[in-house]
Specification:
210 residues; Glutaredoxin; 2 domains; 5 strands; 10% strand; globular
């Protein structure tokens, strides 16, 4: 019996080693990811820098959902909405960031993010002011009172400062979107020959690195 248990343990350990070795051979530093810091964050995290105006970010949403599903439960996934793209002025981009954060505070971020994305990329409509953002939320079930109150809240103001501080912290590494920084140390590089599954697996792989 002891030999059987020992044999099973060795077999499992060998399998885990093989999987790890396979991942290491599959993803190569300098080709599939860059090391941008000497130290990793204390807790594992994935930061997705994106813009609602960016068509690639819109198309990436299904992959982002897969990443969240495959990441370990202790890995924090955070969307960081950038304000330096040429689609609109910084003030308007920050206004849309507030929209994302209002959805986060209301515990309905995913659905409301989808509504913003769809407004721009499916309905082909233009966000030209804060009123346009407000209208998107009202059409999607958020009351005017709830929207206005949440927008003025300390939580949203504080989260906006944190969002933009994160942009400033990683700005030298993020010139375009979508862009993924993992554990504050690794920047993912998606090559032309990678499949969608490869991209998802790369983010998961980096989240497990120290």
């Amino acid at each position: 019996m002891k030999k059987t248990l020992l044999g099973s343990f060795i077999a499992i350990a060998t399998l885990l080693f093989s999987v790890t070795a396979c991942a290491q051979a599959r993803f190569i530093e300098g080709e599939h990811y860059k090391v941008i810091s000497q130290t990793a964050s204390e807790k594992p995290n994935v930061k997705e820098f994106f813009s609602f105006w960016c068509p690639h970010c819109f198309n990436f949403e299904p992959l982002v959902a897969q990443m969240k599903n495959k990441l370990d439960a202790n890995v924090k996934f955070e969307k960081v909405h950038v304000n330096f793209m040429g689609f609109a002025g910084r003030e308007l981009q920050d206004e849309v960031t507030r929209g994302m954060l209002i959805g986060r505070v209301l515990k309905n971020e995913q659905a409301l993010n989808t509504a913003i994305f769809n407004y721009i990329h499916r309905q082909r409509a233009t966000i030209a002011s804060a009123d346009d953002v407000r209208s998107i939320f009202l059409v999607n079930g958020v009351s005017a009172e709830e929207f206005d109150k949440t927008k003025k809240s300390f939580a949203v103001k504080n989260m906006l400062r944190k969002n933009n501080k994160t942009i400033d912290e990683f700005r030298r590494f993020v010139s375009g979107v979508p862009n993924f920084i993992v554990n504050d140390k690794y920047q993912a590089t998606f090559t032309r020959d990678m499949t969608p599954d490869d991209m998802v697996d790369l983010i998961v792989y980096l989240s497990e690195m120290k």
